[in-house]
Design goal:
Largest sheet: 7 strands, mixed
Structural class: alpha/beta
Helix content: 40-55%
Distance between the termini: 27 Å
Mean pLDDT: 89
Number of strands: 12
Strand content: 15-25%
Shape: globular
Order of helices and strands: HEHEHEHEEHEHEHEHHEHHEEEHHH
Number of helices: 14
Strand order of the largest sheet: 2-1-3-4-5-11-10
Low-confidence stretches: 1-45
Radius of gyration: 21 Å
């Protein structure tokens, strides 16, 4: 799947949702919407624009949460509620117990709806049940929380792993089957990590030699670096042909470990999130690829889901949740799965620059200007 195809898919999905939303507004104006809608949301509007959205995000190692998710959701909620709605935000800093306390406090403060990006999908389930008992809808954001959630929005996580695995196999080419690969997966408490891993294995298994595989506690780069150092000792630096890294933060630490071990040429390393330093590493050739996920699309749609759920606008809510996924505790959860794009040095202009994730000035610092010039990024 190339960037152009996935972007067309995203535009088409958004257009469908917007068309349905427009229909809902038109029907409401004629007084025919009350009592109509799917079973996944209330039929009668509950609240006006004066609403409070509780937003629980999982950690700070990845800069996306404070740079993109929170400000985008905050602004979209304001836009959808005539500047009357607000977002109350907490970050758990990778501490599941802390996040449960934050959730309990938001329930006590009687927020109208919760967007929850769980540190630990299983540990958050009792809190989700408490919210349900208190009449507060819960939308799982980015990671599939367990418990009685009302909806889920994330990227197509198995596809993320497939894109990463396929890119690595393609890069290795004819030598893939004889190549020793290190697999650096994400946190075992994050259900997304399991989906990334599943998708990646569907492309890697039988095509490369998976010499070592690690799960990385809390997604922390320092843990990934320690794992990579152990892999180098076990396999030998010269025998490592490539590294599957589930995200960019770990990719940077892995590359550091390879350099410190004496690597003069870095083998292909994958990533995810299109972090700024990863984009620069891709330009310079240190990192092979990342996966670009449109945080604005995910965050904007999450905010719209939350507002439409609270306000009982069932047609709009259903239009935003046309997909269905299963969790260990719940089947057929109304969902939106946002498509992804493989990011290489060849499509930086068509992805992170076109979507205004970064500016040319942010990417093309003096250290990387030569690489930017070579790829006509100006």
């Amino acid at each position: 799947m190339n960037a152009r195809t996935t972007r067309r898919t995203a535009v088409r999905r958004t257009a469908i949702a917007l068309a349905a939303a427009a229909s809902a507004i038109s029907l409401a104006a004629c007084g025919v919407i009350d009592g109509v809608g799917g079973g996944s949301s209330s039929a009668t509007p509950k609240r006006g624009n004066d609403i409070t959205v509780g937003l629980l995000l999982p950690e700070k190692e990845n800069p996306r949460y404070d740079k993109f998710d929170y400000p985008i959701i905050k602004e979209q909620v304001r836009s959808l509620t005539d500047n009357k709605g607000k977002v109350v935000y907490e970050n758990a800093d990778a501490d599941a117990a802390k996040q449960n306390q934050q959730l309990d406090q938001m329930i006590a403060d009687k927020v109208d709806v919760l967007l929850v990006d769980a540190v630990d999908a299983k540990a958050i389930a009792p809190g989700v049940q408490k919210a349900k008992d208190a009449g507060i809808p819960v939308i799982a954001y980015d990671r599939l929380a367990q418990g009685p959630i009302d909806a889920y929005i994330s990227f197509d996580n198995e596809l993320v792993g497939q894109v990463q695995g396929r890119a690595l196999v393609d890069k290795l080419g004819a030598n893939a089957s004889n190549s020793k690969i290190i697999m650096m997966n994400g946190s075992p408490t994050d259900p997304n990590a399991a989906q990334f891993k599943k998708g990646a294995l569907s492309e890697l298994s039988g095509k490369v030699n998976l010499a070592k595989s690690y799960d990385t506690k809390d997604w922390k780069p320092e843990n990934a670096k320690a794992n990579m150092q152990a892999a180098i000792r076990a396999i030998g630096l010269s025998n490592i042909a490539g590294v599957y890294s589930a995200n960019d933060g770990m990719a940077g630490a892995i590359i550091d470990a390879l350099k410190e071990a004496g690597a003069t040429k870095i083998p292909p390393v994958t990533g995810q999130d299109a972090a700024l330093d990863a984009v620069q590493r891709i330009l310079s050739g240190e990192q092979y690829m990342s996966v670009y996920k449109s945080y604005p699309e995910e965050a904007n749609n999450a905010a719209e889901m939350a507002v439409s759920k609270v306000q009982g606008r069932s047609i709009e809510f259903d239009a935003l949740t046309r997909d269905k996924v299963d969790s260990p505790t719940q089947k057929q959860i109304p969902s939106m799965l946002v498509p992804v794009v493989a990011l290489t040095k060849d499509n930086i202009k068509d992805t992170v620059l076109q979507d205004s994730i970064y500016t040319v000035q942010e990417i093309c610092t003096p250290k990387y200007k030569t690489y930017c010039d070579a790829h006509r990024i100006k």
